[in-house]
Structures are given as C-alpha cells and as structure tokens.
Write a structure and sequence with these properties.
By secondary structure, the protein is of the alpha+beta class. The strands form two sheets. It has a six-stranded mixed sheet with strand order 1-8-7-10-5-3, with no helix packed on it. The longest helix is centred in the first third of the chain and has 16 residues. It is globular. The protein starts with a helix and ends with a strand.
C-alpha cells in the first residue's frame, strides 16, 4: 500500500494545480467546409464567393491582412511527432503552416496525454490575446473521425500555466481568448506551450491530431 502513496500525492497535486488555472471555453466556433486548400487559394470558383468572406479564409489564407502582417514565430517544436508515412508528414511545423489539410500528430504510444507543442517568439513580437485551433485532422470528415482530437489543452506562458482550453468535439475552427501575453521575461524570447490533457478518442487510431493553431493579438497597425 505504501508504494501507492507518492503516486496519490502526485495526482492530488496535479489536480489542485489544474483547479487553480482558469478554464476557457471557445467564444466562437466555425465549421470547416469541405473545401481544399487549393480551392481556397485559387479563389476562382463561383461557389467560393461566400467562402472568401469567412473567418477560416481570413485566418489561414489571407494572413497578410491580420496580426501576422507584423508578427512571426521564431521557432516551433514538439515533445514528439508521428513518423512520416509516405508523402504525409506530421511534424510540428505543420500546425502553423496556414494549411488546414496538414497537421501535427503526436508520436507516442496511446493518446498522447502530456505531449505538447511550443511556440517561441522574439521579445519584440506583438502580443497575443486570441488562439485559433483546428482540432483534429480536419482535412476530411473521415480523417477527423478516425483520429483522436483534443478535449482539454493546457496553456503555459513562459512555462507558467495560464489557462486550460476546453475544446468541443467538432470539425471546426475554435476561437479562445487567453488574456494578453507576450513581451515579458528574462530571455531574448517568450513562449507559449500547449499540453494535451484529455482527448476525444478516434474511431480507428489513438493518434491525437491538431491541424492548425494560430494567433491574433495587439501591437499591429
């Protein structure tokens, strides 16, 4: 019995720590239409006219008109990534390539609980207030259902927890206000880390997927 005591204490400590971090639910949810990245970028088909004014198009395929006009990510890395399969790559950089058909997939056995992705920004980079998440493998409904999606994602600013995002289980872009972060710390860069706490299991694979995780914020003109 004694050997279980330290584990119980650790579990209780984690539970208390998480309870002290604010829980954030999505303020907006935009379903992902069955439109390819190439179709978004071509902007030629008549049926696309209404889509070109959509928040998803504005966020991913017209970033020059957004917070990204004066912002950039210095580095992205993950605790693990699933190995490439044929022409399909699942590397960390896919989560921020402004293409909803690619994705970061964690690479450990099981559902990837505790796996994380880190974004580093130069100290002068504009501050962040909002996170946009394409939860799961959103390139198709089949891929989205087959793979696991994130249910709870813990956010750290400069390695200190600031929020737990509660994601809905929908093939969509989900928008979260996390408060204002950035431009503080002792180093040349500041960082945001996103850790998988809980998932919605996929129907075929345990692999947990995030297709895109991008930002908007302050300090741009």
């Amino acid at each position: 019995m004694k050997r279980f005591v330290p584990l119980l204490i650790a579990i209780c400590a984690i539970s208390v720590a998480n309870a002290q971090v604010k829980v954030v639910k999505p303020k907006n949810i935009y379903p992902v239409p069955n439109i390819t990245a190439a179709e978004y970028e071509s902007k030629t088909d008549l049926y696309m006219e209404g889509v070109l004014n959509s928040p998803i198009f504005d966020m991913l395929y017209s970033p020059g008109d957004s917070w990204y006009s004066e912002s950039s990510v210095a580095q992205i890395y993950a605790s693990s990534s699933l190995s490439s399969q044929g022409s399909n790559s699942y590397r960390a950089a896919n989560i921020h390539d402004f293409n909803h058909e690619t994705a970061w997939v964690e690479g450990v056995p099981g559902h990837g609980i505790g796996q994380y992705i880190v974004y580093e920004f130069e100290m002068s980079n504009p501050r962040i207030t909002t996170v946009y998440i394409f939860n799961g493998y959103v390139k198709s409904d089949k891929a989205w259902r087959a793979n696991s999606r994130v249910k709870k994602l813990k956010v750290y600013y400069n390695n200190s927890p600031i929020a737990i995002l509660e994601l809905q289980d929908s093939r969509s872009m989900q928008v979260f206000d996390i408060g204002t972060v950035g431009r503080t710390g002792s180093g040349p860069r500041w960082s945001l880390k996103f850790e998988i706490l809980e998932v919605y299991p996929g129907s075929q694979y345990q692999d947990t997927v995030i297709s895109e995780l991008v930002f908007s914020g302050l300090d741009v003109h």
